[in-house]
Amino acid sequence: MRLLRIWLRTVTITLVCLVALAGYLARRVLAGRSTAEARERLRGESLSRLLERLGATFIKFGQILSTRPDLLGPGYIEPLARLQDSVPPAPFEAIEAMLARELSPRERARIVTLEPMPIAAASVAQVHRGVLDDERVVAVKAQRPEVEAQVDRDLSILSFGARLLDRIPTVRMLSLPGSVARFAVALRGQLDFRAEADNNRRFAKNFSGVPNVGVPGLVDDLCTRRVLVMDFIEGVKATEPEKVGGDRAALARVGGETVLKMVFHDGFVHADLHPGNIILTPDGRVVLIDLGMVTDIPGELLRPWVETFLALAQQDSARVAELFYVYAPSVATPDYAAYQRDVEENLAGLYGKKLGEVEISEAVSSMMNVLRKHRVQVDPTFTVVNIALLVAEGLGKQLDPTIDLMPMAMPYLSEAMLTAPPGRAPLRELPAAVAG
Question: Which of 154, 272, 342, 400 is catalytic?
Fold first, then answer.
């Protein structure tokens, strides 16, 4: 039966892909002569619409791809980043049945009120507001029925498709099989809510001594493999900073410090960090939610990454180019000197500018364009760091356009250089002509 379902799903995906390809070709013909940027954007928009039609698993895969600007150009990244992991909610009766399976009658009775309309519905789970018998207001996160079977089926198809596409030389640079494998691990990890609970506890411990930063408190005895019960956080999402009262500049600094601590001190980063997963509370706190996806930065990678940031701070473009090159998972640039010149030219206009004077997102995008042009990959772990810093920038600029992240980052960078374990050995040496 499983093979039959996979076969039927494969046929459906094939038909949807063929229709999408025909639609893309028709739009390409209608567009006539166009620039390379316009053609890339058309392909990116077509890919985004295709993944949206294929459903939740493929939407999540597109979101993962949107975090790899070293592999895909902005014409792909922008539409993929707009993909929303939002699906129609499962019937409330199915959620009640899930709670009955996961919780004992005594445990279920502790949730005396549960609102039928979810406050959030995504591909893996949905969240309902509830009240416990002690009047504690909680968010009840319940896994969607049948999601495990659906994810298993779609991942099997994705893995097979990635291996086929990897045979195409122009596609091989994308490392699709590896991306699918990492995505599969991340998505399957999201199906076990006990892992998210562990992430929650670790973040709580990391920020226990930091005022005004936290995560929702768990109701431990009501947390299982498929159900999480936690404090309901009153506040506004960071997508709505105009609704925040109080000291906006202080909130901007707290948000920036939160991300810098995760990246350079803890080495434990929220891997799905976007403004929708940051709650700003009326009492001036920053609360991180949806903690299912995290990145644990290996100690051996932390030092090279910190060295790269210090080289940027010290305006040493040649060192920046060298660090990206020697630690890249793979490189295929035939001309290191040309690569180094492009890095230096790209960074030359950024030095000495404050956050309010430069779009870090544009700086990262342009740097990734250079790396992609010269076929110098970036370790996937570092893309999570990039996104976290971009979120800090976006939130900071909306709350306080005068904030400057670099002075805030320097104490973290200095501490990391003193405390980080020895970095891994470079994966390659510079070309002899450059090294000499």
Answer: 272
- Residue pair 271/291 in contact by the 8 Å Cβ criterion: no
127/143 Cα distance (integer angstroms)? 9
Element of type H or E holding 106: helix 105-109
Q: Which two tokens stand for residue 17?
A: 């892909």
Q: What is the pLDDT of residues 232-257, one digit of tens each?
A: 999 887 767 667 666 778 888 888 88
Strands (E) in 133-257, as ranges, are 137-143, 213-214, 227-231, 236-237
In eight-state DSSP terms, residue 218 is B
Higher pLDDT, 350 or 323: 323
pLDDT tens string 18-28: 888 888 888 88
Rounded Cα gap, residues 281 and 244, in angstroms? 8
d(CA 283, CA 239): 18
Contacting residues for 186 by C-beta, under 8 A, at least 6 apart: 64, 271, 293
Radius of gyration of the chain (CA): 23
Q: How far is residue 235 CA from its own chain's centroid?
A: 22
Residues 6+ apart with CB under 8 A from 366: 346
Active site residue 272: yes
Q: Report the amino acid identity of residue 45.
A: E
Residue 313, φ and ψ in degrees, nearest 5: -65, -35
Residue 121: is it exposed, middle or buried by C-beta count within 10 angstroms (0-12/13-18/19+)?
middle
Residue that is written with structure tokens 């009326």 in the block: 282
Residue 243's contacts (CB-CB under 8 Å, 6 or more residues apart) are: 236
What residue spans of 213-359 are helical by DSSP H?
Answer: 248-260, 299-313, 317-327, 336-348
Length of the chain: 436
Contact 390, 361 (CB under 8 A): yes
CB 356 within 8 A of CB 402: yes
Q: Is 114 helix (H, G, I), strand (E, B) or coil?
A: strand
DSSP state of 425: P
| DSSP single-letter state for residue 214 | E
